[in-house]
Amino acid sequence: MTKVALIGTGPCGLSFLRSLHQAQSKGENIPEVVAFEKQESWGGLWNYTWRTGSDQYGDPIHNSMYRYLWSNGPKECLEFADYSFDEHFKKPIPSFPPRAVLQDYILGRAENSNVKKYVKFNTTVTSVADNGNGFDITYRNKKDDQTKTESFDKLVVATGHFSVPYIPEYEGMNSFPGRIMHSHDFRDAEEFRDKNVVVLGSSYSAEDVALQCHKYGAKTVTIGYRNNPMGFNWPEGMKEVHYMDKIDGNKAVFKDGTVQEMDALILCTGYLHHFPFLPEDLKLKTHNRLYPPNLYKGVVWQNNQNLFYLGMQDQFHTFNMFDAQAWYVRDIIMNKITLPSADELAKDIDNWVKKEEALEDAYQMIDFQTDYCVDLCSAVDYPKIDFELIRKHFYDWEHHKEENILTYRDKSFSSPVTGTTGPSHHTTWLDAMDDSMSTYLDTK
Length: 444
Ligand code: FAD
Ligand code: NA7
Prior knowledge:
alpha/beta, FAD/NAD(P)-binding domain, 5-stranded parallel sheet, about 25% helix, binds flavin-adenine dinucleotide, binds ligand NA7
């Protein structure tokens, strides 16, 4: 029987386990699978911890999420086709839930799939060697500090790529008297109440960390972009300026002449794709982009087709795209999909990469990734889901953000699975200080 190693049980790894569960419940013979998860529990980034730095066993902390994190896109856009929000929560819920609510949803489906038995928790994969027919995988049980090596035919890497921070260096950092941190270590915006905060970056983390600091009472928030500003209508107390040149004492000096006093500098400068356990020839090397190279259909390693990566793309689509990828990988492993010749495979990759490189704005990027999801789904038996509606929702969401960055999370969207429209939340996002699941779900 084919033996599969899965590394990581975040949303992507859970999608893969779900895909096996689905095949098995249809009476198909599934391969043997062992899932390795270095954390105590599953759910990946959604599994919040107060910790930063390293855990009690000396392993780097995976988590990059923080208190008061609310979904940054409509939940309807990421809904599982085979497990709706209505089914999980037994009632319609608003469209932008806080982290704990989405975690509950992800884990709810996983619990229902009876797949925990496949997972070795507290177990870090430390190295992988290509043995010609498959892989020798070495892993360490962190609790009893035991290391073992086991052979597998196939390897699915689902270790995420928003965990190892990219940390640039600026003149004046060593003598800056305040706090410098990367968004990976950001946990609680309350820390910055009444402070002058400078945030570097112009993507999702910069946008959200800056808004969090504003929401929880920072005195000023100054965002330094490198190439293009986000350009939203920032509220009073927030501004966006061009690129930090250096730090002079407790001041940030920007290229456009702005000089800003700062108590804290938060680097929202993105993450590295980092696979320390893989040999060089199996390692995906890419920046954060919608179509990383060398991956057929975004998932199959071009030069060794026993190796698969899940979720390595930059992401508009998330959970249902991860499902589509997982179903696709499952079907290759189960010989239901036959891979084309090396030439055709290369051509297909090239085609997608070229299309991706020609994209000019967020709307085209949404189209690109939606088309990619539709393409994958056309090859597998993932239950039908209305990707055209999801495409439209992403467009509307972009418009809402352009209209007012403080209120886009107060909007409602309809489900591509059940058709239900999310009710309005009892409190607007800007006024909702409590992100607990009980407060959020209390619709009285
Ligand atoms: P992860 O969630 O990162 O899971 C990877 C898993 O692999 C982890 O459990 C980790 O412990 C394990 N692992 C890693 N290395 C090893 C190893 N060597 N051995 C064993 N196990 C290992 N997406 C949304 O849809 N909506 C949002 O609002 C949203 N907000 C986000 C906010 C932040 C701050 C960040 C960083 C991301 C956000 N995302 C959001 C995107 C997020 O990437 C996905 O939702 C999702 O978590 C990706 O799943 P994944 O399984 O690929 O990776
Ligand atoms: P992203 O989306 O990869 O973005 C990284 C950002 O960091 C991007 O805007 C970069 O600017 C910026 N960057 C990198 N280096 C610098 C320097 N030196 N100065 C200023 N800005 C810099 O990562 P995020 O953390 O925002 O998002 C990751 C996930 O978290 C995402 O999926 C969300 O759901 C939450 P550039 O655009 O290249 O000019």
